[in-house]
Amino acid sequence: MQAAIVEAPGRLVVRDLPSPVAGPYEALTEQLFGSVCAATDRHLIAGELPIPGIRYPLILGHESIGRVVEVGAKVRNLRIGDLVTRTGAPELDGCQPFWGGFAEQGLARDFVAMRDDGLPESEWGAFAINRTLPPGTDPAAATMLITWRETCSYLGRLGVPQGAAVLVLGSGGNGFSLAVLARILGAERVAMLGNPHWAGQAARAGVADFADYRDAGAADALRAAVPGGFDLVIDAVGHRGGLERVMPLLKPGGAVGLYGIEDLGERLGYLKALTAQGIRAHGPGDYSEAEAHDAVIAMLEAGRLDAGLWFDPRTAVPLAEFPAALALISGRHSLKALVRLHG
Q1: Total number of domains in the chain
Q2: Model confidence over 103-156: pLDDT tens digits?
Q3: Pick from 115, 141, 127, 160: which is nearest to 63 by CA?
Q4: In this predicted model, which residue has the larger pLDDT, 210 or 261?
Q5: Is 121 exposed, middle or buried (0-12, 13-18, 19+ CB in 10 A)?
Q6: Which domain holds residue 22?
Q7: Are 5 and 81 in contact (CB under 8 A)?
Q8: In terms of domains, do 317 and 275 share one?
Q9: More exposed terminus of the chain, fewer Cβ within 10 Å: N or C?
């Protein structure tokens, strides 16, 4: 099978790997579609993702949907034909999975069967992201579920007061997801500080106030638009100085979320300083995809989430032409890029 592999920082190839073999609690999947994450995937390609344990060569992809084509002997909750989220290739031929979704075949794990059979959570807990989708779900659009689940969980833990005013820093895929989910979860007004290229897209997403991050007067413009201040300020990017610039706009008793990881080490120190001042501050990674799955599926089925805001679900780049998907993002043609993984 073919897979998108980063052989070393800066060297991306699409080449053959052995097909994965399903174990007793695993299902073999035909990978259908995956979305390129402009932050994580591009940082992995460049060798710049600030998390430990990354080793090259690696198989890219954490926003993929697979269809079950074969099940292991102890699988009871996955059936042939099921669509499953976050499926991906395991370690193959010395290539580590980070997280292996951009491949023609992958694996899903029946974590429920493993749990019910008494296996330790250390063996199945990480696979609670392998969830089946309702019949009729569009697998191309469903690649957005990963981002939606992450941001929905993050906002749920941070807390979105009903009628809140929320400021999102960043106009990338995650920034838009935080803005859209904040409104669904009860925010009355959402503002965004971002790239003016996406101002029209932000209005489509329900963002009431948009300011150019390059404008020295952006904070003053947002203060004039929302004179009462913001209940939540969420940094979807994480660049040095981003939060400092808008902290005067935070209401007393308001909360801060650092979702982005661009300057992670320095930013974590800043969050500690905010906490020492008595400001409630949440750091990156404070979410669980699994806990938000049912809520996000309900939103999707109710028509409250539309993948078309991030990319055109009808148009996908073939896996063999993976670099073209990266070009769509770098050229700001779409917030994310869809990749067809099989067929």
Answers
A1: 2
A2: 999 999 999 999 999 999 999 999 999 999 999 999 999 999 999 999 999 999
A3: 141
A4: 210
A5: exposed
A6: 2-140+313-340
A7: no
A8: no
A9: C
Structure tokens at 26: 């695993």
Q: Are 151 and 101 in contact (CB under 8 A)?
A: no
pTM: 0.95
**Nearest C-alpha neighbor of 144 from the set 341, 338, 340:** 338
pLDDT at 57: 97
Report percent pLDDT > 70 for the chain. Answer: 100
List, for residues 285-332, the tens digit of each pLDDT value. 899 999 999 999 999 999 999 999 999 999 999 999 999 999 999 999
In a domain, 7, yes or no: yes
**Cβ neighbours of 85 (radius 10 Å):** 26
- Assess whether 184 and 235 both reside in one domain: yes
